[in-house]
Each structure stands twice: as C-alpha cells, then as structure tokens.
Design a protein that fits this description.
mainly beta, five-stranded mixed β-sheet
C-alpha cells in the first residue's frame, strides 16, 4: 500500500513533467499562489531595516496574514516558517490582496523539507500581507506556527543629495537620501562641508534615519546639528563605521556636516530624509510633570518651543517656559536662575492637591506668582510636599532645588 506522502510526491512530479513538456508553468507556479481570500490580519509588524535583523510574527492559522509595513523595493528579504513541523506554504501579497508577489512550498533557501521559506525581492515599496497555510492552500484553520522575516540585503545605495566637500548648501525637502560628498562611490580626503535640510512641509520637523557607515573610524565623521548651520546645538558626532541613529529636529531644520582627514577613505554614509509633525515636550502638562526625587536638583534644558502657553500668555521665551516639575514629599526651596533678555521672570507655584489643613499653612501653599526683575539672579519659591512648579514666563537659564536651612526643614 502506498503511503499518502509518497503518492503526493508522485502526483506532483508527474504534473511537473507534463507542465514543463508543454511549456506552461515554472515549477514554483505549479502549486503556488494560494488565493488571498478574506483573511484576518493577525498582527502588523515593521519590516527589519538592518541587514541580518529579523522580525517574527505571532502564530498564524490558515485564514490569517501577518501585515508587514516598510517593505522596500530593491531589498532582499528571507521569509520562512522553518522548524514549525508542518508542511506549509508561504504566499506574499500586496496589503489587502491582489496578485501574488512571492511563493514557496518545499525546500526553500532557509530550510530543506516541507516547511516553507523564500527569498523575496519586492519590485514595489509598500505594505505586504504574508499568508501561511498548510499544503495544499488549506483554509481549514490549522495553526501553522510563525513567520520570520529577515533582511538579507538592503537596496543599492542611491543619493538624492550629497553634502558638499567644502562650503555649504541647503535643500528643502521631506524625502530622498543624503550621502557624503562621494555619493554612491568613496569619499576623498580633506572634506569639510555641510548641508542644511529645511522641511518642505510648513511647521514640520526634519528627521533622518541613517544606515551603517564605512571609512576611517578614527578621524572621518558626520556631525548632525539641531537647526541651521554648524552653530546650532550638536545632536551627535558619528565616526565612520558607526551607524547614524534616527535623529529629529526640534526646531525644523537639521544640518549635516561631513569631515574627512588627510588619509584613508571609504564608502561613507547615507541617510533617508523625512518630516514629522512637531510634538510638545513631555512635561507640557501639569499631570505629566518631571518628578524631583531628591535635593539638590538641576533640570536639563527642555525643548519647549511647542509648550502650551500659560494664561495670560507671555511674550518671553526660554528653555523652561510653560513646562512643569513636581516635588513630592520633599521640603526645600526652588531656585530659578534668570538670564538676560527680558524685563521680568515669573514662577508660578501650586499645590496638587493641597494637603489637609493647607489653608492653615498660609503662604506655604498658595497659588502664587513671584516676579523678579532681571537684575536679580535668582528667585526662591518655598516648595512643600506635593507642590508643583511651573515657569510661566522667561527668560530662565536653569532650575535647581536646594536643601533649606534647618529652620525651614519643617516646611
């Protein structure tokens, strides 16, 4: 008696011979391209962006797909179900269905046997649906294991823009790729130039996403600045051989500078450009105040350009305007150090909520505004347990909290 697995293999080989003899089908087309049907989207994941990186789906059944965003034309992905223990088929579709873009049943590039695997080189960038089914295109609802997507190779480098080897230029865009002065080739020695990237969408912030770079690690580098020109705040320096991370402006433009020394070169860097809508600082809302847990305390500079203005709104500006800190269970004095540039600086304080018996504490628990002329270098506001502090006007150079004298420790 012939086992089913042997019979199945015999039928498939016979069909292959017939199809090939008449020139009708390629081998992968023979059983391939299972219908899209009406599957449920079990999970949405982002495609890997670093060569060698993987992403793995949840376990899928015959009537589900994993939806993968960020699939890039020109890249090569390996998609596989190895180790599931099942005889599976993988079919890749555009998001929502359409013509199959890839298929495998048995003996793919990742694993021999009946678990499916495929090398997938998309012709079109976009979101794709990957369907995993038991042989033959089952819709029975079998649980078939996971699908893993690995980035095998990135698209060939393209350079929409290049940083100049000397001097500077500026571009206005929210798309494309920017590279070192060598473009898709190697850069040369003694380069030092920069490009200002301005957003082409009003009010947006420029973002770059870098890839791995190549060149002289000790002495050739990229610097990225938050704003226009190399006088803007430095976001970071990334020597060749180091991947440039995702960096987003808080003021609109980004500036990219490339520097090489007198010896040794390489392929350089590239980074994709996009724009994002701005967001306010995390501690814009009183309910999301930065907690001060111990004394003394000095705040880092807050990117507060989009902080919600207090009422009445202030015409002043500064790195601490309209953002919040909270002190819980600590007694002390908040010291705000003013800077020049405006007539007054104001700190507004409120309890959140006032403790029991707060009214009896008098000035220690008011909703209060303290205004000092700029000639005064500090303003001191009593801080009690569960008190919150907000700088509502500016200019302010820094905030610190210091331990009060012993006579004030009961506050």
């Amino acid at each position: 008696m012939m086992k089913f697995s042997t019979l199945r293999a015999t039928v498939r080989i016979s069909s292959l011979v017939v199809a090939c003899c008449f020139g009708l089908l390629a081998p992968d087309d023979l059983y391939a391209q299972c219908a899209y049907g009406a599957p449920a989207v079990a999970q949405t994941v982002a495609a890997p962006t670093i060569v060698g990186a993987t992403v793995t789906s949840v376990s899928l059944n015959d009537n589900q797909v994993v939806r993968v965003t960020g699939i890039t034309a020109g890249a090569v992905y390996r998609v596989y179900n190895c180790g599931s223990g099942f005889d599976t088929q993988i079919t890749i579709f555009p998001s929502g269905g359409g013509a199959s873009e890839g298929y495998n049943d048995d003996n793919g590039p990742e694993c021999a046997g009946t678990a499916a695997s495929i090398n997938y080189a998309p012709a079109v960038t976009g979101t794709k649906d990957i369907k995993l089914q038991r042989y033959s295109c089952s819709t029975a609802g079998n649980v078939n294991g996971t699908v893993t997507i690995r980035l095998v190779s990135a698209p060939a480098a393209t350079c929409t823009y290049t940083v100049p080897g000397a001097g500077n230029n500026s571009i206005t865009t929210c798309s494309g790729t920017i590279c070192d002065p060598g473009g898709t080739g190697n850069y040369v020695d003694n380069q030092n130039g920069y490009t200002v990237i301005n957003p082409s969408i009003g009010g947006n912030m420029v973002r770059i996403v870098g890839t791995a770079s190549s060149g002289e690690a000790c002495c050739d580098y990229v610097r990225v600045y938050n704003g226009t020109g190399t006088g803007a705040p430095l976001l970071g320096q990334y020597n060749m051989g180091t991947a440039i991370p995702t960096l987003t402006s808080t003021v609109g433009p980004l500036t990219i500078q490339f520097v090489s020394d007198v010896s040794l070169t390489g392929a350089g860097f590239s980074a994709t450009i996009s724009c994002v809508a701005p967001t306010g600082p995390s501690n814009d809302a009183c309910s999301n105040a930065i907690a001060i847990a111990s004394l003394p305390y000095t705040s880092a500079v807050i990117a507060n350009a989009l902080a919600t203005d207090d009422s009445p709104a202030s015409s002043c500006d500064g790195p601490y305007k309209n953002v919040w800190w909270t002190v819980t269970g600590i007694c002390g004095t908040m010291t705000a150090i003013t800077c020049t540039g405006g007539p007054t600086s104001t700190m507004r304080s409120r309890s959140s909520p006032p403790p029991a018996g707060a009214a009896a504490l008098g000035p220690r628990w008011p909703v209060m505004t303290t205004t000092e002329p700029v000639a005064r270098t500090t303003t001191q506001v009593p801080v009690g347990p569960r008190q919150q502090e907000r700088l509502t006007t500016s200019p302010w150079a820094a905030i610190s909290v210091r331990v009060p004298p012993a006579t004030s420790s009961s506050m």
